[in-house]
Amino acid sequence: MNTPQKESAESQTIPSASILPPPTASAQVATLTPSEASSLSRALLPVRNALESLGRNRKATIGVCIVAIFLILAIFGPFFVQADPNAFSPDLLQEPSATHWLGTTQTGQDVFLQVLVGTRVSILWGFATGLFVTVLSVLVGLVAGYMGGIVDDALTLLVNVFLVLPGFPLAVVLAAYVPIKGPFTVAMVIALTSWAYQARVLRAQTLTMRHRDFVEAARSSGESTWRIIFFEILPNEVAIVASGFVGTAIYVILAAAGLEFLGLGDSNVVDWGTMFYWAQNNDALLLGAWWWYVAPGLCIALLGAGLALINFGIDEIANPNLRSIRGFKRMLAQIYPLGIKTAQDA
């Protein structure tokens, strides 16, 4: 029989943890369950591996350095130079010198300032349009490839319609008849005519992956359709998506410069394309003002080369057969067995 003293002693020995308040809702939301953490880590693993492989690729490293220089100039360059690139000066059509590093135009405008300001405009709209095209292509391609049925038929029909349309000529026609001129109009016209090819590539890749074991396992465990598409299938196509983005960015920058050179953009906005436009209108080639058109042309060529090197690096990571000349010839020999001999066969 327990005495009152024993009962009071037992009541005093109750652990303090048993009377702690329950965890708040914010603490519960902030923590991930083990299954969610494992799913997120598994989804990011292909991206992490691709970035590590990209860092070890020489072509990709050189391309990243070139693009990084242009990005630094685009972001910080105009902050250090406060002068107006459209300002006139009495130094008309001067060759490159210590005063004007890249010379001047026929109206005395500094070419270096125009290149510096135009770098920001061209890269901003080029990369933004490339990102928009890539996102649109990913959505259409992955949804069509995974869903199948009438959804796939409808989206494939839409893709095929845009594939048969001539891209740049259609962009010229659309840009000519759109009443509002400017970089945004040029970007939207290019985006409208350049998304279908990448969407078709992603659809074909998704068709080969939707019945893989890991996709079937995710489907059997009750995962939602969108979670399977973006957390199971998309990470395994990161190389194709990255390559498509880089290729689209190259095309957008070149196409935008071409449209603005034809006078289909806003000639008052300073970028590489409008520099070509004014150089051509003022007969820079006939006057011998080579610096007027060489400067923007060299920028476009260097940026395109940097993006192309990144694209080559991504292709080599996605396809190891391209990492050497012998491997490339061996791959071609498998495709065309009678046409090309490898060094080993010779």
From TrEMBL:
InterPro entries: BP-dependent_transpt_permease (IPR050366), MetI-like (IPR000515), MetI-like_sf (IPR035906), OppC_N (IPR025966). The keyword Membrane applies. Residues 123-311 form the ABC transmembrane type-1 domain. It is found in: Cell membrane. Pfam families: BPD_transp_1, OppC_N. Its main location: membrane. GO terms for cellular component: plasma membrane. This is ABC transmembrane type-1 domain-containing protein. It comes from Ktedonospora formicarum.
